[in-house]
Specification:
This protein is an alpha/beta fold. Helix content is 42%, strand content 17%.
Length: 215
């Protein structure tokens, strides 16, 4: 299992950037619910040069390698050591209109814009690390896309956990509205349970029509 570090962020600070962000998304694959992105700025004062078991971020990593129980603990630690964070959502209607790739980039842009607005940091010299192959369009700050960034860069890993927890909470709420689909169990992914529910009940109001056609 690969664990991220804070070296890339520190290099940015050394180059004169005063604000270093990480951004990632969750929910590209599900056939129901939104794709959610998060962006965050970690407090460099509480992060050492080397990872060790006594560091708060010791277990912070790509959210896909964590359990729901572990994420509940990790997200609290992240929030305690985050100077600012933002969240962006793109729901099923938009996903069906613009496709999941564009929707993911849009969710990340909204997350970054949400963070900058909350932090009132637009005038600061900022740098953004984005998970994946593509940069986020229509952003005015400098950025770098990093393949497997959620396994390499601590700020991206923290953002991935924030995004995953936020989306899971949305799916739990949707389970209350549409209990017959079992969203609380599979979070909208195309599991056997979900496919059987779709066959029995058809599409709900929050299913991605463009996805269900191909399942």
């Amino acid at each position: 299992m690969q664990f991220p570090d804070f070296k890339s962020e520190l290099e940015c600070f050394e180059k004169g950037y005063s604000l270093v962000l990480g951004c990632d998304e969750a929910g590209r694959g599900p056939v129901a619910g939104p794709v959610v992105a998060a962006a965050c700025v970690l407090n460099r004062e509480t992060i050492g040069k080397y990872r060790s078991k006594n560091k708060w971020y010791y277990r912070v990593r790509d959210s896909k390698t964590t359990t729901p129980e572990e994420r509940k603990i990790l997200v609290k630690e992240i929030f305690e050591h985050t100077l600012a964070y933002g969240v962006g959502e793109v729901w099923h209607e938009e996903i069906d209109k613009i496709n999941i790739h564009q929707a993911s980039l849009l969710a990340m842009r909204r997350a970054v814009e949400d963070l900058l607005q909350k932090a009132k940091s637009v005038k600061q010299k900022a740098f953004l690390f984005v998970d994946g192959r593509f940069k986020i369009p229509e952003l005015s700050i400098e950025q770098k896309s990093v393949i497997d960034g959620d396994a390499k860069i601590l700020s991206i890993s923290a953002a991935s956990i924030i995004a995953k927890v936020h989306r899971d909470n949305i799916m739990k709420r949707l389970d209350g509205k549409f209990p017959e689909y079992g969203f609380i169990n599979h979070k909208g992914y195309s599991t056997k349970e979900h496919k059987l529910a779709l066959k029995k009940f058809g599409l709900s109001a929050v299913h991605r029509r463009s996805f269900v056609k191909s399942t």
